[in-house]
Input
Amino acid sequence: MDFRYIVEKYAKNYEIYVYKARNIEVNAEVDEFKSATRDYIEGIGIRIFDRCVGYAYTNSLDVEDVEYAARKAAKMAKISEEDYHIPENLGKRDVRTFSTEDFFVEDAIYHLTEMMNAAREANPFVRIDSASFSASIGERELITPTENFSEKFSHFSYVILGMEVKNEVAGSFNIEMGGTLDFKSINTREVGFALGESVKDTSYASKIDSFVGDAVFSPLFFYEIFIECLLNNVNGLNIISGSSVLKDKRGEKILGNISVEDNPLIDYMTSSYSFDREGVEPKRKYIVENGVLKTFLHNTKTSYVLGEKSTGNAAGGFRNPPIVGSGNIIVYGEEEKLENIIGNIKRGLLINRISGEVKINGDFSGAVKCSFLVEDGEIKKPIKNVQIYGNIFSLLKEDVVVSMERKNFGGAIVPYVAVRNIKVIS
Amino acid sequence: MQDIFEKIHGKINAEYLEFRFHRKLYTVLVITKEHFEIKSYGDFSGVGVRVLKNGAWGFASTSSFRYEKIMECAERALKIAEVSSQIKKKSIELSGGNLATGYFKTPGYEDILNTGIEDKADFIKEINKDILSSGADSTKVFYREALEERIIWTSDGANAKINLSKPEITTIAYVKKDGEIVDNLFGVGINGSWKSLIKKFPENFGEDFAKETKKIANAEHPPGGMANVILEPSVVGLLAHEAIGHTVEGDMVLTGCATTGKLGKRVASELITLVDSGDEGEAAGTIYVDDEGVIAGKTVVIDKGILKSYLLDRERAKVFGVESTGNARAYEYSDIPLIRMRNTYIERGEWKKDEIIEDTRYGFLLSGARGGQADSNAEFMFGISKVYEIKNGSIEKLYRGTTLTGNAFEVLSNVDAVSREFEFAMGYGQCGKWQPAKVDGGGPYLRTIALLGGM
Output
């Protein structure tokens, strides 16, 4: 269908985003296979730049529905003040985002079962609370008055939640997850095994005394407590709103020796893309390099408001105007074997997750879950009723050690990270 | 549409067949400081088909309303159920329920449809301007609207059409203080009309909200530790939903959580009656009928401190040997129904709010729930926006926000006063459990003991 012809009736400047995907999802609940679903989603998002910007979408590609969406986008554009920005520097890079068309419900069930069996193999006392495997195979296309980019994708993601239950005594649950765009790299067995291992011996957790000491953050916990907070703070939208605490710190040394890279150009990682949601060419870049804040992340709108250039980080699907997102996140630092990191701790914690909150300014507090006391270089016992609090940016101002062992969640590669002087309250 | 469903039903050989036509029209306006960040309209509509065959579920969906496409979809769901049944250990059976027939509609549905987008944009622009001109350094103001049309048809007799309108406005003000950014949030979401929504924002709202934010920014951090606390309705709603409600969802109960095996046992003070209801007027979690076609009525979960019921869909109701409580909900046509809450609240008591304050020698009034987390063992941690110190029966001092932690059942067991004043206060935003759901929560003011975070 000629979408340009339809939209040009309403505006000269526009952006059309077309999405088509076949989705499969299979789920398990309480140690049992639960359900399978399959659907085909297609849709179109139309952004009109007519002195002002308006957006509309529909999940039907019928001519009448597309025309109605175009008319609605034009109407939305007219309701507010001038807001004129048109994406520029459009371009596409080579990155592999597609591996197969041939993936079916039966394949998804196989991988889900493999993940659950691996968890049980690692820990016969594991109870699988829930698990799911999703596949999304399709194509996305971006059309402007002058350009037309398209990209096929095959996206596989999987997650498992479980806890250890011994003699009806349940430990704290933990989560493991993975993802890839390459069906040959699906590692459901590895992810399930990791879940079983991570909850081992947590059924009989015990209380400990308060102390100030070292802590090793698991890769997933480090991602949740630091990377998500950092990404919020460098997001152009939060720079504009003023809610970012890093708003005026570009070029300054804000951390110790940690580096964080945003790289959307790694073959088959789940946050890879050959053109961003606005058609801007993606780039590899350091957000933080050796502790120095190097860049904010922008789409065309946020860069326009701040008088900068888009960093190729426009993100989102057809159901929203482009937001600001990130590519694959890679964390670097001074490396050491995990065994040695733990071996050097006199008294500290190995933390897998917290039930609590992390504020945008980096303040965090919460009860540690599925975590362990480390003493004299050894993991001693699982712990309960223990809280931690502090500020993650302050903790990482000191140089820290990261593990050689890294976890790849699909869209991020993150090591274990050891920090000092964390406040532990019980 | 029901004609198509009936025709297909005659051709699909299954124990149970469920069709859900689901049209959702969304409008989103977002202002960040002076800029309109988003002005968006969307239509996400289609048909979801769920089939129970040989004791296993199959689900498929299509965005087309044509007979051939819906038929293809039903056949695909049937095939998935057949494949699934080969690996499923336990067969699924369904309970009955109070099945719905007829037409159900939000009062004021047409008012939202007939109010122009310009009026809605002007209203939030005015609020934004007032907040900024009254001293806030930055703002975010959201208007979100979802108009829903659903037809639920099941092979065992449900046939209901439901129209819902769910508008909401959320405001955030930011104030800088000594290099730190302090924020304050207020939101209202309802099941109702545009006129009802804007009544919740009095003329001087923007000015008062900005002033309140500046007061919070100038306040000290509260002392931490165990304390007498009076929870206001938004905090009570969050406690009822997040820390209690999730632990009584049938799927969670079967996994193993704080309420497993506790039906008929005391879990809270006798002053506590906790309800989940799908029909509470303008409360935002009102749905009238759930997505399995069951009337979404009032379920008393805790009656005077005794655990009386779980929240169930038809599958889990069969496991417990009872009827569905009407808690099966799907967010959009392409989502499979899950057990979700609707409007979850604690019922009002005998005290006046002022009497509870006057009766408190030393403690804190906690106001403005800011979200949080709870585990399946009912241990929770919530963010609180404002903490008012109470000394000798009167409110003395405003402190900054903090965290509230504890075990929800212990907190409810320690309740010794519950107010007559009552409010739903969680209608903005959504609950997340694999898929979003519009819910509401609230209650009276109640006094208990809990752990406050400090600095």
About this structure: The first strand of chain A starts at residue 14 and ends at 29. Chain A touches chain B through 69 residues (CB under 8 Å). The first helix of chain A runs from residue 3 to 7. The mean pLDDT of chain A is 93.
